[in-house]
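Fold these two proteins, one after the other.
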Amino acid sequence: MIPVPYNSIVCAAAAGGAREPLFRNPSASASASVYLLQFNCNRRRINTNNRRNNNNNFMDSNNNMRTESYLRHVDSRKLMPNGAGHIPHLKAVILGEALASEEDDLVLPSKEFSDQANVHSPEQYMEMYKRSIEDPDGFWSEIASQFYWKQKWGEKVCDENFDVRDGKIKIEWFKGGITNVCYNCLDRNIEAGLGDKVALYWEGNEPGLDGSLTYSQLLNQVCQVANYLKDIGVKKGDAVIVYLPMINELPITMLACARIGAVHSVVFAGFSAESLAQRITDCKPKAVITCNAVRRGTKPILLKDIVDAAINDSAKDGVSVDVCLVYDNPVALKREDTKWTQGRDIWWQDVIPKYPSTCPVEWVDAEDPLFLLYTSGSTGKPKGVLHTTGGYMVYTATTFKYAFDYKPSDIYWCTADCGWITGHSYVTYGPLLNGATVLVYEGAPNYPDAGRCWDIVDKYKVSIFYTAPTLVRSLMRDGEAYVTRYSRKSLRVLGSVGEPINPSAWRWFYNVVGDSRCPISDTWWQTETGGFMITPLPGAWAQKPGSATFPFFGIQPVIVDEKGVEIDGECSGYLCIKKSWPGAFRTLYGDHERYETTYFKPFAGYYFSGDGCRRDKDGYHWLTGRVDDVINVSGHRIGTAEVESALVSHPQCAEAAVVGVEHEVKGQGIYAFVTLVDSVPYSEDLRKDLILTVRKQIGAFAAPDKIHWAPGLPKTRSGKIMRRILRKIAARQLDELGDTSTLADPNVVKQLIELSDS
């Protein structure tokens, strides 16, 4: 069984008065103007004996107003004209023309969009944000009360120790509250009259292969799977490994586990047998649920073969799997061609339909585990991130509603796989908790051609489209024609997730995909955070291309230097978070010491994100990538994301990935893998021009030492660039490339090696 994480020390939380429920759409009239939040870059620290006024502000010795530190990012406001319109420098992002290097363009929501937005002005945001910090108990209790609780939580909404110097790290929200996430996703919505509303649209890899499930139909199928799991002995707290492609059976299985209190651990159906075996060995599941095969594009992936190998490997480590439930996917592989182990393997279609379509709910404590999700560490054993029930439920639902300005009429599509945290929070739980209609897509985003995404958008009238910068850059490379031949008129909000999006890709996404009318929610968050931490709220304030803008409710981001000292004003440094939030993970499964060492010991008193961040003069946050992706060149600390952004601003560069290599003079040198726009030839002049672009935008110290031409970059099927492989190629450590089985196209590695000396 998966134990509840170790918890100890108490944190007191403030009480709050009654307010209107925050989880309902605000009915206040929208402001006639759109405001830009600005940051007072001349902020200086306040002496502790400064006096406080009635508005929770400080007055310094010169009677100058100074707001509380947590409101620094909303310190002042400036009236701005309405109308987003077309972003300046559009030609700067058209591939093949001039450079795109401006970061200070402002993109304002139209008055029409702001008028209907859930958060329609900076004033409304500031009021809600301020309360979420000063009265977190009251703020989150009101939101949590919109969900069903069999029993309300205890007196303390939040009980935490966030400082390793005070003992073991502990985070608890809504402890003592009894609820169930599956019930809140399905039963609650059906009881509210949404039983006939489509919950899931499914689009297959092959055009024309599709399906849908209403909320009532989804509940029926979830209950059948839940009853089967109970029948094979799965109980509350038991782990179930899920190794499925993006078919409806994946979220169905997740919800079925949640319904009976089992702990699901979804593994991306692209990980190797070795990686899967590590996860099986660690969490010791009662069952593994998979599919015989799947097609992504034209490529068949034999998932069952991978599972067989993983189960055999885990058995060698003393962990056996007695049940392997296999979904029959005849489009990818015939049943008779599937390898089979009698007595262990069983076909989904042979058993699940026989079970009743009703299943009692297993009510669980808010702090009981909901799921395990393994995230790879830089070395060694994968980290089992453990999320619990109540806080995660409340936080994912709330972030989904506000960050995407969700409306009941929206059709929502997130391109992420449920094997990643994005698929948990923003394909399954967040949307369904809001009663949304979600699109699940099985195939590759460029199959049968680069217009598939927009064909799907038009087919289902998708209004919210959430994807990764890697896909955006890939589609940029393929050209606008694949986009503009489709209407896309249904789109109203776009989103970006997974890594910092460079300004030129942001502008292309906005101008071309969104026709200069859809705000972009450029979200920053992590597997560990459970939900969005820093994100625009569409309609509330002006955006800057490439900036995640401001923190979500309840989040107190700080930027610290190498000594852990908070830096005010315009600055760069390490991004940390003060205080806990409901969606935070509670521990690393079976390794609380590693949890504390990795996230709480680097800067005592804070959660350390591992990311670098720059705050500009207006208070906007710009994520600069992982701090372990910082290259130290002759004493200059250079973020790889910054160099990559400069390279892709060149009109003939479609994509770039930068790593550090040893340099006998500078300590480290900059090694850049560059993918060019289609039909652009490699040349020495272009190489020099790319280097010059970086010199102009960043400085001579950041100029790449090596440009390595790359027909493509090694990526997982979810689009993540495998920088580990790039580092080995750059260092010529070709015998240490490791596992490349998760790559969408393993042949890319061979091509890069062949071009090493070109």
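Now the second one:
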Amino acid sequence: MLCTTATKILIARQHFNAAIPKISSLPVIYVRALHSDVDKGEGRVKYVLSGEGASSIFIIDENTGDIHATKRLDREEQAYYTLRAQALDRYTNRPVEPESEFIIKVQDINDNEPKFLDGPYTAGVPEMSPVGTSVVQVVATDADDPTYGNSARVVYSILEGQPYFSVESKTGIIRTALPSMDREARDQYLLVIQAKDMVGQMGGLSGTTSVTVTLTDVNDNPPRFTQSYQFTVPESLPVASVVAKIKAADSDVGPNAEMDYRIIDGDGLGMFKVAPDKDTQEGVITLQKVLDFETKASYTLRIEAVNRNIDPRFVNLGTFSDTATVHITVEDVDEPPVFSSPVSKMVVSEAAKLGTIIGTVSAHDPDSSNSAIRYSIDRNTDLERFFNIDATTGVISTAKQLDREVNAVHNITIFAMESQDPLQVGKGIALITVMDINDNAPVFAIDYETFLCEDAKPGQVIQTISAVDPDEPPSGHRFFFALTPEAASNLNFTLRDNKDNTASVLTKRGGFRRREQSLYWLPILIGDSGTPSLSSTNTLSIRVCDCDPDGMAQSCSAEAYMLPAGLSTGALVAILACVLTLLVLVLLIVTMRRRKKEPLILDEERDVRENIVRYDDEGGGEEDTEAFDMVALRNLNVIRDHKARRDVTPEVPIFFSSRPPPYKTVPDNGIFREFIWDRLKDADVDPSAPPYDSLQTYAFEGSGSVAESLSSLESLSTDSDQNYDYLSDWGPRFKKLADLYGHSEGSNMFL
């Protein structure tokens, strides 16, 4: 039997460094020897080892059974090894004893220092905390076996951070060690904490970590003003504008430095207001009322600043508030005129005549100069110029007839300007309400279209009418309805005033027939209760229709019939015939006018045009033939020979000729008669002329005149005694004119 069956073998790691024998050139350490009762020392038994670490960590001498470890063991990696041993017959390799199992336990030594796995630490503690206030707990761990010896028993100590903080040796809790630590003096501390095993004894291993402790703020400092304040503001500063900003100093931060401001005394309690700026904690002073240098030139305020969040623990330190004096000086500026009332309300009747005085506005110069004021109306608010204003007195009067139904209220802006400084302009509002008069008669509320069934019974209501009136009487509208005198005696319809601003139209008889009469006109008189009372006549059309059993109109004819006060059917037919005749005549006239306005098509073979010849120099004009076509100067005989009209409208083109044709001179106006007869013959034989009379217009000057020709083209053919030889003495620029018009020999002109 093996002597190691089911036993535990302890191996102390500190023994590995001892001098040990070597097996197969490997450094080994003796663990234990195995021995079988069968082994008599004859060498017939050999020992075999198997299990965890067999052959790699643990080896056995097969002859003696000695077990050795071939490498250093680490308990933190593996604390136990389970092995199996067996004795075999060396020659038959058969077991001589059953297999035995044993456990090797690695015994711990202190080879691991404590470690702060969560370090370094940061923590905070309120300033002014009492001694012993917990800050943070640090924890160190030791990988050694806590069940064996003191290798894993750790104690804590503080290496840096005294005398402000301390640490509990067993728990690692850091606490404050001094009272009244002030954040405003020092707000951060760096601590070094040590953890040592072996209960802190000599030879123990240690580890350290750092702890950063920040003092958090508490409201232990009151606000303090460091000065009094002096400000200057112009009297023209608008209301709600910022006048100044003040600030009380507070060493605290965040909510502990928040403060409120209020005015507790002074002569500007109603003029100014102070409120905190939530971002900067400044006291913002704003203007509440309009400043006036002439009334008051300076103000003194006493303003208090109070901490908003007071800590009761520090009330004994004193009041958490302070006050400051603020002096505000008003600076004089040139102000625009001020109206005695910003809005002046006036009333005028819409029946007011032109020039009627409505009311007066008044403004004054607030400055000490008291400049005279001139008034005017902003015409952008009175585009139609209904009103005028006296520039000196401010009296407003009507300039046009007013109509309340068009505009019941006029909102106009009045300018008040200083005479000495026109740039200083004040503005006021005049609200002019136009009072109503009864100047509109009532009329039908809508355009009524009344249908009457042929089977209507006498006394049947066929229409209920109402009226509207743009006037607005103070007591409300009251309308009266009646038939006109000429319609009151008709035998078909009657009218009943319902006394509620409506009236009902009723039939007087039955038996209406469309074929006999399909349309009736009933004139109705509507009057109002105004003073004076106004009325109007409104005509109600009543159409006779064929109705279904439910009384719904199916078909209605369009033949009109007038009540006894109207026209007969024959008269209406005659009127319609006249109207149609007039329409036909108008259409014919319009057609003729349009056809006359259509342009004629000019004869493509005619070369008739106007030419404007422009000369920009004094000489060479007659020789410049590039700017115009000389063909335009040929006589009308040539033009007439090649005429072929293609007119299609009653008009013919107007021909212009630069010179008259060479017709023979006849007494009186014979040349014109000959010209006209020639044109008439041409038109009569022209196959393209329209087959109706047309107006022919020609531009023909004729030939010969008492004043003779004024054209320079025939200047040389006249017997003028004028001598132009002196043009030769005027220089080269007039030489051409001298050659053309002078009497020197050899002067010729060619066209």
